[in-house]
Amino acid sequence: MKITIKEIAREANVSIATVSMVINKKDQNITEVTRNRVLEVVKKYNYLPNAMAGSLVTQRTHIIGLVLPDITNPFFPGIARGAEDKANEKGYSIIFCNTDDKLEVQEKYIESLTKKMADGIIIAHSSSSEKMPEILERCKVPIILIDRDFDSENICGKVLVDNSNGAHMAVSYLIEQGYKKIAYLSGPLKTRTAYERLEGYKKALSDYEIEFNDKLVKFGEYRIEWGRNGVNELLEEKEDFDVIFCGNDLIAIGAMKELKEKGYHIPDDIGVMGYDDIYMASLVEPSLTTVRQPNYQMGYRAMELLEERLKKAPGSDNTPSDMKTITLDTEIIVRNSVKINKKVKS
Amino acid sequence: MKITIKEIAREANVSIATVSMVINKKDQNITEVTRNRVLEVVKKYNYLPNAMAGSLVTQRTHIIGLVLPDITNPFFPGIARGAEDKANEKGYSIIFCNTDDKLEVQEKYIESLTKKMADGIIIAHSSSSEKMPEILERCKVPIILIDRDFDSENICGKVLVDNSNGAHMAVSYLIEQGYKKIAYLSGPLKTRTAYERLEGYKKALSDYEIEFNDKLVKFGEYRIEWGRNGVNELLEEKEDFDVIFCGNDLIAIGAMKELKEKGYHIPDDIGVMGYDDIYMASLVEPSLTTVRQPNYQMGYRAMELLEERLKKAPGSDNTPSDMKTITLDTEIIVRNSVKINKKVKS
DNA sequence: ATAATTTACTTAAACGTTTAAATAAAGGAA
DNA sequence: TTCCTTTATTTAAACGTTTAAGTAAATTAT
Fold first, then answer.
1. How far apart are CA B346 and CA B342, in angstroms?
2. Closest-CA distance of chain B to residue A270, Å
3. How far apart are CA B85 and CA A174, in angstroms?
4. Per mean pLDDT, which range of A129-133, B55-59, B171-175, B312-316 is the poorest?
5. If you write DSSP's letter for every residue of A62-129 in order, what string do you get?
6. Residue A24 buriedness (CB in 10 A; 0-12 / 13-18 / 19+)
7. Rounded to whole angstroms, what are the CA distances from B316 to B136, B140, B242, B311?
8. Interface residues, strand C, Cβ cutoff 7 Å
9. Which residues pair with A218 in a beta bridge?
10. What is the mean pLDDT of residues B36-53?
11. Which of A3, B113, B183, B302 is the least crowded, having the fewest Cβ atoms under 10 Å away?
């Protein structure tokens, strides 16, 4: 038989209110002896309170929705893990959702999370389509944005990385190592990350007074296949380049594969630099020089922000002061796909 | 203001029962006109029913717990994704939990899932410690085991891969390519997977009348670092070997790294074979010949099994006939870290 | 000694649904 | 017409908690 607070109360000869108070440590006014009597019965039956029933009255489920494009993409497990660790620390559970960057899937998930009364949502949203504000609007719980920026009413926090600065650092680094003709295989320009990284790329070039050459910049998906194809697109331009900066590590890995198959030597003939520092980056050959995004931190801090916000009364509106943006720093990870101090040599 | 079924009922001039019936499509007895009136109000307010409140009475949360060692380990995202896809298809949500293979963490998660009234749990459990049965016993919901076998009362399904057979296939393959001295870098023997793969390794050797040599078998963690260390342990034995079969791909990748650094050429000097076929396996150099475990399928089928089981009334006990075991097949993925038809050459 | 306060509980309403049972109106059979 | 069914809807109990308000006894203050 399923055992409820009622049974415990009956067996311990107290009211259910007393049991509830003991369980929730609101027992300043409960005598030692009653408390122990209750606790004993609780233990005897291995009683665990039904959180749902409690949630109904407290209006808190301690469930957080984590909406990501695809956990199978090596960029995301770290984020998920970070969020989960912090959540667990604070007594929250995480429902996770893969959108494949499809707007209608994302919408469905947000609806589902709303129905299940998630206390909040952490989301790496999909595209900045016009429907986004409406979708987010409809969702009444606090939302934390990660990785991809966007502006809307009920967003109460953002954890971003400075893409522009990351790309700027990367390209500056390449230039300082002596590279002059820097090609760029970007992700899809409709994503904010790609757009911002392109900005950083351009700014670094102009800082060092290198002319921007749009024949050296190609746009595609954040995938290995695009890395391969992108290299070919670049080669077809018959425009000289000595290093390829890539929109992410997957592109970089694809680019390296293709270059090697075409007989180029990395980094001697052509350097390759990535972005993200996924697990694989250190394992490919040559190991990939890249820009580390602190993805564990992203998840962790996002959950931290959310937990902070959730200290306010349930259902309470966001005040402007709730809105907090954390911008995490990137870091250049020097490995072997880019020559160090190339200029000295050539 | 938060809008509930009561508001909808009032505004539509019907009872809340009617609204409930319309929403849940139990509306055979509702007139077209009432239905539409209700639906209109629902739409007007973007009303979404509070699933928790419903769950309280139906005793179904449509929440599934997915308990994994570590989503950051490349073996697991595929499983998670498979489970999530099927879950989503059937209207379930997944709460995910990382145990780091720690028993007390696992216990805590199972407790949390029980409190939150998860309808079921899919778990790649941690170690076969003596406490496991007790932990599982206490958890009253249906449990599906994945990847790692175990026996206990309320387990109502298993999705396993035949580790012994997988290893047997792999080693047989190696032998048939002409390899004779096959070293084995195993995972920790306390895990069932490692134990079974060792069985398969031994059986293949004996099938081909090759003597088992325990100097060629070393045990460590399922990690890259162990691959590196394992190679050194093998080399120290001064025992000849022409290929290393590895307990998983991470070990294989580590082994390859170490071998290459030591100046060995793969596969010409020494072959390396992995197990799992994680994403990275095709990206390392040389690309890794390995045994594919169908991990997306594992997650997917596990959720399928669970969903099937959940068609029974909530709280109903497992009958022996509920217990279903699915054993998925492995497949050899031929790449470049093992020589094909070595015997012809040498 | 009486009133006021504190302590240790209990009562009962509330949370937002689902659903079995009740009811009332309409339609059909006798 | 009267009775029986069917149809369309409502009533009310139930799900398992939390918590504000109430109460009775014990303690302290006056």
1. 6
2. 18
3. 42
4. A129-133
5. -EEEEEES-TTSTTHHHHHHHHHHHHHHTT-EEEEEE-TT-HHHHHHHHHHHHHTT-SEEEE------
6. exposed
7. 16, 10, 55, 10
8. A 13-18, 21, 29-31, 33-34, 53, 56-57, 59; B 2, 4-6, 16-17, 20-21, 23-24, 26, 49-50, 53-54, 56-58
9. A185
10. 96
11. A3
Q: Is the pLDDT of residue B29 over 50?
A: yes
Q: Is strand D less than 7 A from the beta carbon of B18? A: yes
Residue A3, SS3 per DSSP: coil
| pLDDT, average across residues A64-73 | 96
> Angle at Cα B153 formed by Cα B129 and Cα A4, nearest 5°?
100
Q: How far apart are the C-alpha atoms of A84 and A139, rounded to whole Å?
A: 22
Q: Please compute the mean of the pLDDT values over residues A248-268 and round it to a whole number.
A: 96
DSSP letter assigned to residue A206: H
Average of per-residue pLDDT across A144-148: 92
B109 φ, ψ (degrees, to nearest 5) = -65, -45
pLDDT of A344 = 53
pLDDT digits (tens, 9 = 90+) for B151-162: 877 799 999 999
- Strands (DSSP E) along B99-237, which ranges? 120-123, 143-146, 155-161, 182-186, 217-219
Q: Is pLDDT at A239 greater than 60 in this prediction?
A: yes
A57 forms bridges with which residues in the sheet?
none
Provide the pLDDT for residue A127.
65
Strand D contact at CB of residue B30, distance < 7 A = yes
Q: What does DSSP assign to residue B317?
A: P
Among the residues of chain A, which ranges form H helices?
5-12, 16-23, 32-45, 51-58, 76-89, 103-115, 131-138, 163-176, 192-207, 224-236, 249-261, 295-309, 342-345
A247/A326 Cα distance (integer angstroms): 22
A145 strand-pairing partners: A123, A158
Helices B295-309 and B76-89 cross at an angle (nearest 10°) of 40
pLDDT, tens digit (0-9, with 9 covering 90-100), for B189-244 = 988 899 999 999 999 999 999 999 999 999 999 999 999 999 999 999 999 999 99
Rounded to a whole number of angstroms, the distance from the CA of A210 to the nearest CA of chain B is 34
Tell me chain A's radius of gyration from C-alpha atoms. Answer: 26
Q: Is the pLDDT score of A43 beyond 90?
A: yes
Round to whole Å and give the CA distance between A305 and A86.
Answer: 10
From residue B263, how far is each of A164, A335, B225 by CA, in Å? 41, 20, 18
**Span A124-148, mean pLDDT?**
80
Answer yes or no: is pLDDT of B344 > 60: no
Query: So what's the pLDDT on residue A319?
Result: 85
Q: So what's the pLDDT on residue B235?
A: 96
Tally the residues of chain B: 346
Query: Looking at chain B, which residue has its C-alpha nearest residue A3?
Result: B140
A137 pLDDT above the threshold of 80:
no
